[in-house]
User: Fold these one by one.
Assistant:
Number 1:
Amino acid sequence: MEKEKGKLKHKIILAYSLSSVKQKDKVKFLRELFGYKEKKRKVYYHKGLLDKIKGEKIASNVIMAEFKDLITLSELFNRYNIKPRIIEVWTR
């Protein structure tokens, strides 16, 4: 347990609301963020930004990612005029 004390990771939690966004933009935003699967004859998986940066969804409209990915996430949120609440945290 004592060895793990120095191995804290700097992360961010982003809480956001989609209530002011048009439905078609909500779908585009969520597909970009989380990815989606497409069923034709075969099932195709399209990775989202969270998959690429190894972030995770921790609740409805709440995600957690590495602090270094803040700029990438901010660009996506700004593109859709979504103002997330950003909380810095340290985790193991």
Note: Residues 2-91 form a domain with the Alpha-Beta Plaits fold (CATH 3.30.70).
Number 2:
Amino acid sequence: MKKLVVGLVLITLPVTPIFATTACISAEYVGGNMGLGSQIIKYAQFLKTTESFACIFYVTILGLFFYGGVGQIKKWIITWKI
């Protein structure tokens, strides 16, 4: 039973970094004056689309990096096969 609970928790764990990154950037986009969200707004106001997309690309790479890192940690923790 304990392995099942740990397995279910660790199955949902890789999705959380993507949601956390999205929530952080969205909060900065709405109410921040520093960070990537505010940079996206600043670049969009001055029609600098390449810089705006560079920030969005950076956030995407950051989310994928966190997703892969959590996936590797999950592989190290879960040694059994379901």
Note: The chain is about 80% helix and 0% strand.
Number 3:
Amino acid sequence: MQATVLVPTYNESANLESMLHALARVLREGDRVLVIDDNSPDGTGELADRLAEELPFVDVLHREHAVVPGIGGIFSHAPVLKAGVDDVATAGPDHAFRKLQCPVAKVLFNILRTQI
């Protein structure tokens, strides 16, 4: 079973690194994290790129012209990202989680809630 955790960001440079390292502690082999940055002026996108070089499970999508910025916008990507994975969950850099009809979000929420 593979999971993809979507992490929408906008001005989250202060929170992103701790979030990704927290996810690193609980993700299973084959799980992925996709950081979706909405052209953050605080450098979040650049930080995400640097962290993706360090953390092999992280990918970054830059949305330079986000029509729906923030967490609302990622739902337009969910059906496409669901292909090839068993579960999709969202996790905000502020450590907020949202389920997309999948058990992995509940598991991640419960584990991370106790570690952060």
Note: The beta strands are 3-9, 32-37, 58-62, 87-91, 97-99.
